[in-house]
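Example complex used in Figure S2.
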Amino acid sequence: MKKRFYILLIGAGLSVFTACQDVLDVDPTTSIEYEGAITDARSADRALQGVYSAFQVGDYYGLSYLYYQDLYTDNLNFVGTFTTHREVANRNINPTNLQIANTWAAIYSAIGRANLVIQDVGALTNIPQEEKDRIVGEAHFLRGLAYFDLVKVFGGVPIVTKPTLNVAGIQSQGRSSEAEVYSQIITDLTAAETKLAGGNAEAFSASELAATALLARVYLQQGNNAQARDKANQVIESGEYDLESNFGDIFNASGTDNASSESIFELAFNEDDQNALASSSNPAVPGQKFYVSASLFNLLSSDGGERFGETTQQQGTRRRVIKYDDVVDGSDNVVIIRLAEMYLIRAEANARLGAAGAPPSLQVISDINIIRNRAGLGSIVPISNAEALTEILKQRRLEFAFEGLRFIDLKRFGQTCTVLNFCPATGTTPDNTFRNLWPLPFQQFETNPNLGTQNPGY
Amino acid sequence: MKRLLLIFFVFTSLLSFSAVAQDRTLSGRVTSSADGSALPGVSVVVKGTTNGTSTDADGRYTLSVSGTPVLVFSYLGYNTKEVTAGSDATLNVTLAEASRSLNEVVVIGYGTQERREVTGATTQVTAAAIENVPVAGVDQALQGRAAGVQISQNSGTPGGGVTVRVRGSSSISASNQPLYVIDGVPMTTGDYSQLDFGGQSINALSDLSPSDIESMDILKDASAAAIYGSRAANGVILITTKRGKANKTTINLNAYTGIQNMWKKPGYLNAEQYLQVMREAFINDGYLGEDDPWTAADFGDFYYGGFDFDAEGVDTDWLDQVTVKDARISNYELSASGGDAKTRYYVSGNYFDQKGVIIGSGYERYSGRLNLDHTYSDKLSFSAGVQLSLSENQRIVSDNTVIGPFANSLAASPVFPVFYEDGTYSYPNYYYTNPVAEGRENDNESKNLRAIGNISARYAILPKLNLNLKAGADVLNLSERSYTGDNFPGSVGIATQGSATKTTTLVSKRLLEATADYRWDFGTNSYVNLLAGSSVEENDIDRTFVTGQGFPSERFRYLSSATSVNDGSNSITPFALLSYFGRANFNISDRYLLGLNFRADGSSRFGENNRFGYFPSVSVGWRVLEESFMPELASLSELKLRASYGITGNQEIGDFTYLSLFGPGSYADRPGIAFSQIENPDLKWEETKQFNVGMDLGLFSNRVNVAVDYYIKTTDDLLYSRPIPTQNGLRSYSSNIGSVENKGLEFTLSTVNFTSADRGFTWNTDFNLSFNRNKVLELYEGQDIFYGFGGNSLVLREGEPIGTFYGFRTNGIFSTTQQVIDAGRYVDANQDGNIDTQAGDVNFVDTNGDGFITDDDLAILGNAQPDFVGGLTNTFTYKGFDLTAFLQFSVGNDIANPAMQYQQHLGVYDDNMRDIVEGRWKKEGDETDIPRATYLDENGNGRSNQDRFIYDGSYARLKNLMLGYTLPSTISQRAKLRSVRLFAQAQNLITFTDYPGFDPEVNFAGTSNTTIGVDFYTFPQSRTFTFGVNIGL
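Predicted assembly (1491 residues):
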């Protein structure tokens, strides 16, 4: 007995010595390996949803990028201790600003995920062509949107269209020109239009008309007014969308089941997938705060009509944003493109196509008044295209406050000197026009020697 | 592998000797000279031969001998004795316990050695040094006790994290904490909390009761530590718990209780001073006229649009409001040990209770331990040790936070009352909530149930060939509950009508290990010890949490009352380690020593191309004392030279960091996946090469012992999240790049200054001093890495140490407008009508001389690494009295306090301020080093990363002063007690420092690798007075 016990003991000892290397083969439980991740229609769609997810982060539409369009301009003020936000509010962004670096990375993260879907889903042979077109088409739309978000604040940026999967595949393209980036955006959005043609038009994911609508915005920003007009017209005439009669109803949506009738594309959030837009403007909750500027507040109050009460609210000494007001669940959807913008794009494109001094066309007047009337304001008749444009810019400020359009509007209208003090040099003051673009993140020049030159002035 | 082992066993069998014929039998008993108890397992060998045996459980031995040989009696922990056997058949021997002697046993990996034979750099801290010290954790108790080991308590948080650095920081992004091994089982250490409490972590090591510990051996150089391979780069701390001895049962009762208070309270402004600063700021910026009325109410109207309370006469000292006076600390422990030759036991129970000096904080621990040893036969023995503990921690959010009681108490302005007239909590600032409410109205408790155990068997296959099997486990179950109320304004719980979270974290470690050891004696005093072994270790971390919101009132605080359970998660992280190791220690004539260590570690954390890491080391020792050419100096009792070189690793590189992965990425209610990590199959451990030379010197029969060590430690292949151009869609990948060097000198001196035979005056001194120079040698493409507040208040730069502070240099305050004009700063660049830099503003240094103060002017401002650290312990006894004074110091380290941007904001924010600002610039011509008050602060006087907020953090601290009195045995025995000792003790009694913050021993970022020496509203340590009693039965 004793002997047998000893043998057992020695045997047990030896078995430890010879333990198999299998114990080292453990698999992650919260992630899966890339190999075999995208294999069928279901997993392809999962990867596509991951691209949308990249747009939701706090560095992007979940907070910073979206609010910065208004913070850097004249719609929002900042109260808090973060120097990153403060620099943007002061319109004095340092290239070392970490939020700018994070936002840049977040936008490229969306692009990287879209690249992967376009490449890997495109290569699948076992799913129906229609399904493949839908998934790849949506990815093209999202990539186009992301590049537009880059070009509008940074100017020319590197164009990356292939995913990076391993160390050997790390890419370090240099900056492309602004025109090349626009060309890439138009290629993507056109591809999205084609691949998504005839698909459904729900607002929570990209559709053919969302691509058309975004193209209208892109063409307008590019100065291609005729194309902008045509694309906007195409969306309006499609009959897919109707203006909400009550302005506030546009922003009630949460999750993926109740978009407003005028929403063309919006990012869905719910209580499990939150954004910080509402809490960042609510003084009852601690933290860094973005409050409505006095000038926008007063303008909304005097000229905003029904939009005033649906956009902002005085709370103590603070002026809250209430377009996004779900502080509890942080689940306000973010409307990215809606029908109202199409009317104003069509009006603006038409007005720009006409002579500045000439009276605006009836369609320009009617498009402007559609937006005014919906807000409870009376119709007006501008006497010239120039006056119409002034009214369009004003309506856009009132209509799209905190929807991420203010900065490109001021740039397109050439108003950044008068409104933001980004003026050319005079005898006594240095040139400030360079602030029409943000600096590229300082760190990117270190990690990517090919990147090229920093935006001048920084 | 199997075949190799077979060869090994066959080989070792061949080496064993056949018995030599003997002609008579000698027997006897070996006892301890101290108490006459039997000593089992004493080695009895005929000198110069391999003929020997060991004593049985009753201390008896029988040996066949011829003639009158010299017998050598040796036993770990006792002085070896040589006795010439007479012609009697019986030879009884007493052995004296070795104290402070060369025969002191030190624990090394997978075995023990006598101090005299040690060739590596190790330090031992014994029970005596850590007993009765009023701290929660053993790591705290180690502070200042060992050369080369820098320990700092990050804060005064009860049960909180402690930073332990053995020979400096060797890593940037992996771990810098040493490996802890308790009775042969590697311990789980670190912070497994799933809740965010600001910077302060909890500490899995505080689950151990310090009183259960017999000794701690710190393996510092590569030769000592290499046997722990891929986990040894930061040193190894071997913890040995107390075990029973074969003698009469002894029972010990130890108890102490005492009070804790903040040892220092820096000055803050009162309401009047505060209002005056704010007034000045608005006057200086032109918002307010000199003659405008300025009562507290006026300020409220101006700043907040009116107060909703009567501000007249309010002057709240917020710090007082959150401080607990005379917070209790108590500890009770009872242990019994004893046994017989067959079975020995040690059993203990402990209760430790520490209330925090800030409201809402506290730590309690219940623990018990049972250690059992059983000798089944002279071939087979078993041991087991098991510890169970339950700790309950009341936590508060601390450090970098706007919702912590301590942080908010420093920030809250004195013009607000704690409560409004209707009894509800006030909302004292825009950014900060009511600190009293944060402390009282929130629940944050964690309960940690910990089981650590091991069972082992030892079997002698051949007389000197043993096989050891060990199974061990360390299981930690951390359960946390938090509730944030909605019954005070500004609470994060308001939006959600109260929120609660419950988490469970189960961290389990299972170890299976087999070793074989063999000792071969040859020649005189010469032998080789061989060890070979293998182990498998499997770990899992299982995390779960669930949160809910919408509570009927603050009286409902558990998730069952939530209106919605809105978030939850579960994940499991496994990792495994498979290891083979071996060691050979040669001792030739007690003169030449050679040690070889080797370990191969396979880890699930390493990339496919580097699954196994190999960690060899070699060490040599030369006991010069034993050389024949050494003159016989009576005063010289030890002279040994040591040198070692070896490689160790650090495998704390994260799990699965080498794979290319998809993680979850859902879009609202649509499940999704997102590419999250690029593949790096070459990923491996960090590798540390360490060279050590040392000398041990003993004088006057070892009344003076000196150990000096010099080391160079270079860590390569640093784990680094290598940044890639973010246009790739990801920011970085885990890679091995960069290197760090630590060089240092360690000096230990212990002296017996006075001895006395009959309870007269004795005086012992222990002194240690360590110099470590840390330097980053190489970073990815030489690029600086910026981090810290604002993203660039600390820098990792080649040639500079880890913990280098970065920021703006300043050159005083502009005293006059003319000075500003002369400096070319009298401009209004942003055209807002205010001159950007005015008299009274900080003169930031335009480092690059371009005329502007921009990020390009940032420079190195200091660093957190001390020039030297050390400890000095003096122990005096006289009659029944004993007095121990332990002084601990750190010299030359800087502390950055970026919170000073708020605590000296001078009008920019609405926080209260330190009284330092009373010396501010007030009028043209004032010469001061504190700038003027301004709300706009266009010059950026308050920016956090400037040298005005970097302070000399040097300190010396009378860490512990203990006075004890042991009752004469005549009295205690009358009460049927073996011994009775009463003691009084003061912890942190006196601190010498120029640091203006709360406490120079500080680190807001918990146990971070790279953010060190930063104070950001960190919970300070307290001064503790305790009284206690030690009773022996």
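The CA atoms of residues 417 and 423 of chain A lie 5 Å apart. DSSP finds 17 helices and seven strands in chain A.
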